[in-house]
Design goal:
The chain is an alpha/beta fold and about 210 residues long. It is built from seven helices and five strands. Strands 2-1-3-4-5 form a five-stranded parallel β-sheet, sandwiched between helices. The longest helix has 21 residues.
Length: about 210
């Protein structure tokens, strides 16, 4: 994969977050980028080693720190996402020349919430998605535009395409005899293949 087109996504994987992740993943794929998520491919590999490899592979990163709180009473808060953000910042600062141009999009769900737990990033431009997939998609699209300053499809068009894909995906699943469990546990790279196949089909249909 191309370093210039790779985007490492550091985010929660809970079911409540999945609609946001799907919108981000679709937007990046639609715009010709390669989303990279930490998925176990080899049980002999540690998760942290895999994340380090993805950080090294990607010029761009999306870090969502919106789950920096305990989900239950007397439960400790989870800081995996801020930790991975710190590793990425370290890569940009201390890595060789190719990493100096790394670019980050940092998400939270509420304004100024992160300052209570991670005040060191207060100088960064944190984008707020309010747990709304369309807002997350719009922020991703606008961030990608700023990287190249070239004309790309509007957030509204990409959002409409995302919804069209979701509608068509239901029919594709039936055609491929995929169960709900197949869908829920589908590797993200396979999900990306479905998006790319759908986009190619739409392109041929429109031509």
């Amino acid at each position: 994969m191309d370093f210039e087109k790779n985007v490492f996504i550091n985010c929660p994987f809970d079911n409540a977050y999945k609609p946001i992740l799907k919108s981000i993943y679709f937007c990046l794929t639609y715009l010709g980028y390669n989303p990279l998520l930490s998925e176990t491919k080899n049980s002999a590999e540690s998760r942290i080693s895999n994340i380090q490899i993805l950080i090294e592979k990607a010029k761009f990163s999306i870090h969502d720190i919106s789950r920096m709180q305990a989900s239950k009473k007397n439960e400790l808060a989870r800081f995996n996402m801020p930790f991975e953000l710190g590793m990425d910042i370290g890569c940009k600062r201390f890595g060789n020349q190719i990493y100096k141009d790394k670019s980050f999009l940092i998400f939270d769900k509420e304004h100024y919430r992160y300052q209570k737990a991670l005040s060191d990033i207060s100088g960064n431009d944190i984008q707020i998605h309010k747990d709304i997939p369309e807002k997350a998609l719009r922020h991703v699209r606008n961030w990608i535009f700023k990287q190249n300053n070239k004309k790309i499809d509007s957030a509204n068009r990409i959002w409409n395409s995302f919804n069209q894909f979701n509608g068509d995906f239901y029919l594709i699943l039936q055609s491929d005899e995929l169960s709900q469990e197949d869908v829920d546990e589908m590797p993200w790279e396979e999900h990306r293949n479905y998006i790319l196949q759908w986009m190619e089909g739409r392109k041929k249909f429109n031509n």
